[in-house]
Automatic annotation (TrEMBL), chain A:
Membrane topology note: Multi-pass membrane protein
Transmembrane spans: 9-32, 59-81, 93-114, 120-140, 161-184, 216-236
Keyword terms, alphabetized: Cell membrane, Membrane, Transmembrane, Transmembrane helix, Transport
Name the UniProt record assigns to this protein: NitT/TauT family transport system permease protein
Organism: Edaphobacillus lindanitolerans
Keyword hit for Cell membrane: yes
Single Gene Ontology BP annotation: transmembrane transport
Similarity field: Belongs to the binding-protein-dependent transport system permease family.
Entry's Gene Ontology cellular component terms: plasma membrane
PANTHER family, per the entry: ABC TRANSPORTER PERMEASE PROTEIN MJ0413-RELATED (PTHR30151:SF0), ALKANE SULFONATE ABC TRANSPORTER-RELATED, MEMBRANE SUBUNIT (PTHR30151)
Main location: membrane
Localisation: Cell membrane
Higher taxonomy: Bacteria, Bacillati, Bacillota, Bacilli, Bacillales
TrEMBL record, chain B:
Chain ranges of the ABC transporter domain: 3-233
Transmembrane spans: none
Assigned keywords, A-Z: ATP-binding, Nucleotide-binding, Translocase, Transport
Species of the source: Edaphobacillus lindanitolerans
SMART domains xref list: AAA
Protein name stated in the entry: NitT/TauT family transport system ATP-binding protein
Domain of life where this protein originates: Bacteria
Pfam family of the protein (one): ABC_tran
GO terms of molecular function: ATP binding; ATP hydrolysis activity
CDD domains per UniProt: ABC_NrtD_SsuB_transporters
Amino acid sequence: MRLLTKRLVFYVALFAVWELAIRLFGISPVIMPAPTDVFRALGEMIGDGTIARDLGASFMRLAVGLVIALLIGLALGILLAKSKTADDTLGSLILALQSIPSIVWLPLAIMWFGLNEKSVIFIIVLGSAIVMTINVRTGIQNVSPIYIKAARTMGSSGPDLFFRVLLPASVPYFVTGIRLAWAFGWRALMAGELLSTGPGLGYTLKYASDFGRMDMVLAIMIVIGIIGVTVDLLLFQRFEQRVRVKWGLEAAH
Amino acid sequence: MFLSIENVEKSFGKDGRRELVLQDINLRVEEGEFVSLLGPSGCGKSTLLSIVAGLGNPDSGRLQLGGRDIRKPGKERGMVFQEAALFPWLNVEENVMFPLKGSMSRDRMRETARHHLRLVQLSQYGGHHPHELSGGMQQRVSIARALAMDPAVLLMDEPFGALDEQTRMRLQDVLEGIWIETKKTILFVTHSIQEAVRLSDRVIVMGTHPGRILQDIPIRLGRPRNLHAGEMAEYEAHILGLLKTENDKVEEEEMRHAASH
């Protein structure tokens, strides 16, 4: 409860200082709107259904992209974990690709798919699949040797060993992979929408920017932030924590 | 059904030179016998056990169980490790059912698992997950899991080595009870003299550099053993004397090694 109080005081103070500074120095809302303007814009956009419509469109894209990315990541991760040759060759390429932000693929994606949904989904898949691949590979390679030994003395080998021991033993890494895939995908989605087409949160943000509506821009940024934090902290990190406790990787709190 | 180990040798590569870990190992374990391999760390007792399990291969020599060569792991040799090695994604009952899959109906599997959980006095815990159990309880589940596939021989690699003294003594009682009830052949690795004498029909005392069998000591005492505390102490003193000479040798070698660097 004390934590909540501290945070509440902090945010109230933050908005108060912000509001005060804007009024004191008479800053134009085109440069920086006051929090009251931002919340009014947010209220309007929620009221007229803009936010709901944009969120729906954005999440649809993200869901499609993530499902494709997770399937690719799982398949590639298994391949890299099982084949030394694939890991030495394809693995190095994937590590190299990881250092390229997926959004820089957009020009190429637009040439290939056109200025539409597919390009954005392509960017999401690229961003998310790589991090999922790396986690699946690491997970399978890091399965505790004692599990493998124990299973072998119980007559398990080959595909039976793989499906009944190696895969389930790697689940904590898969969960981390999914969380990171979401985080990368969410960022890629916003960047993609900002630079291509709508409807979607990123697109509305650009639209607002074109009309100099910085109150709307900030309102959408707040929505993006809140959704990012909510999904990551409340959903994924909790789930990840539970899995890690169950798998004996972390003590319960 | 008996286990025979003939002329087994094993060496590991180390800094470019080979070190002999097991030399001239000959051992015969009769059906229903409880045999312990006892020795200081580095005597190769765990290596020998994993060779019997089929997890490692000897450089030379021959291993047979019931007249058939041992080449790879198999369900006729159950293994209990120092870590319980239970699968965290399965509950206790599913863990015990793990080795049974494909060999019987699901109902029979469940029934067999429950029977063996009763044997280790954990029938109330079938629905729990491993992380909810203490170390001693996890190790009992691991014993139940190995026994559930009805192996001809049970291999145990310092199964109580990571447990506290009280839990350890309690599990020794439990294991002796199981052995009296099931008459399983057990090959048990330990570095505790007390534990070896407490549990075994025969104690195989091993020495180091290279790992070899020093002496095969039959423990001619009735069961349960805790009724024979006095005689057990005599056996323990005898074995301690044997290992003392070994320890002096190890110490001397370490000194020489330290001096040469």
